[in-house]
TrEMBL record:
<dbReference type="GO" id="GO:0003677">
    <property type="term" value="F:DNA binding"/>
</dbReference>
<keyword id="KW-0238">DNA-binding</keyword>
<dbReference type="Pfam" id="PF00440">
    <property type="entry name" value="TetR_N"/>
</dbReference>
<feature type="DNA-binding region" description="H-T-H motif">
    <location>
        <begin position="29"/>
        <end position="48"/>
    </location>
</feature>
<feature type="domain" description="HTH tetR-type">
    <location>
        <begin position="6"/>
        <end position="66"/>
    </location>
</feature>
<protein>
    <submittedName>
        <fullName>TetR/AcrR family transcriptional regulator</fullName>
    </submittedName>
</protein>
<dbReference type="InterPro" id="IPR009057">
    <property type="entry name" value="Homeodomain-like_sf"/>
</dbReference>
<dbReference type="InterPro" id="IPR001647">
    <property type="entry name" value="HTH_TetR"/>
</dbReference>
Amino acid sequence: MSEEPVDTATAILVSAAVLLRERTFDDISYRALADEVGISERTIYRQYPTRAHLLAALSDWIERTYFPLPPFVTVSEYCAAVHERFRAFDASPAYAYVGARASAISPTLDGAGPSYLTRAIEALLDVAAPTLNRRDRRRVAASLRYFSSAMFWARLRTGFDLDAAEICDAFDRSVGPVLARLPEATWVEQ
């Protein structure tokens, strides 16, 4: 059985993830990464011209590989998916911190639109609260997106030394009021 070939950009990201097990993102040089992948440092610069590009791509790859969000259609499924996500963050904190850090910088990738999670939350609101006006829909989506983010998890983990269960509780207490403020007529009967 032969292994599927991996493109250079993905090989760089895989190697960066391996190095994250031993050091922080800031301690991973392009030289060390090139040595790990077995390519020239110049090739890495061609793929990721700046560390911000590398961080954004690595965060996206880690998100898809290690923290895929379970599908959700209802608000309760969304909450359960976020709880599972926070438990996964606790199991791989070095990877979760990369996601938190990447979300704190400006988007650097050309054509980078809303993330998968943002699109999924917006789709949830389109179905669950179809009469919600555009302004409120954007506000609710932004709130739900932040409260389910690696950044929210990281701030509570490092700032308050909370574990996944406690962060899930904080998430529930944060999201509840956001959803409760919406008019009752907004929601579709589930």
